[in-house]
Amino acid sequence: MLYFLTGITASGKSSVAHQIAIERNIPILSLDSMAVYKGLDILSAKPNDVMQAQVKYLGINIADPDQNFSVVDYLNYLLDIDFPKMTYEMDIIAVGGTGLYFSSMIKNYEFRPTDPTIRAELEQLNYGQLMKFHEIYKIELPSVELNKRRLIRNIESSLLQDSKYVFPKLNIPNNSVGIFWTNPDYKLNIQKRTSEMIENGLAEELSLLNNPSKTILQAIGMNIDTDIESNINQKSYKLAKKQITWFKKENSLTPFTTNDANFIKNKMIELMDE
């Protein structure tokens, strides 16, 4: 069965999940949109080599840094490893704070797939040419503020409208599927984590990235020229607030606000033992 330990950034959820996984000899699925990337070990606060030797981690190091990696790519990865079937064969903890990954897994989201070949060709066109494409092929424009990215996605959706992607049902608890943890000390934890990242060589790690994808360029810590530590902290605070807003809507998760990691660990164990 699959259980979720979600929470705001720097809550301590990864450490709690790791402890439980060791004690129960079960794997962990990462719900982190940056941990999927190879070479982003420090920036994504990925489990280190020792931790990966202790516990089997899924969902990390599965994409190259120059690859745009979407939630559809994540779900495709889960299908490739036969993850839905795994949830019926063993206990698994999913841990992380990427809300869209969580929601898409438990709500059997329906997506239209993307086609890398089509997208590559469309990206060669400018805004005016994309508008002309809509006119020639009688594609209805989306009712939102238009930009090149939205025009490309709209054309893709039109061309692939007969294709549907529905994620299979997972083996999850009927009531609460897990926990959403808000640690009131998150700002102090963020500051400590950022400082450790910089000490551990964050700048060097980022300098080694060759042609990073648009997805990576949106990550906290990227495109910062001055006062890296302060910038990362401020952006992390904002991320935490966004995560609270997102997960507050998820009635399938039991929310807890505490700085007691042992309390969260015990609550997870209670859920898994029901």
Could you characterize what this model shows?
The structure is a single chain. This protein has 274 residues and is an alpha/beta fold. The protein has 2 domains: 2-110 and 166-273, 3-Layer(aba) Sandwich (Rossmann fold); 116-163. It is 46% helix and 11% strand. It is built from 13 helices and 8 strands. The protein has helices at residues 13-24, 49-54, 71-80, 83-86, 99-106, 116-122, 127-136, 148-159, 186-199, 202-207, 214-217, 228-248, 261-273, and strands at 2-7, 28-31, 57-58, 92-96, 110-111, 165-166, 178-182, 253-257. Strand 2 (28-31), helix 2 and strand 3 form a beta-alpha-beta unit. Helix 1 (13-24) packs across helix 13 (261-273), helix 7 (127-136) packs parallel to helix 8 and helix 9 (186-199) packs across helix 12 (228-248). The longest helix is centred in the C-terminal third of the chain and has 21 residues, at 228-248. The radius of gyration is 20 Å and the shape is globular. The protein starts with a strand and ends with a helix. The model has no long low-confidence stretch (mean pLDDT 91).
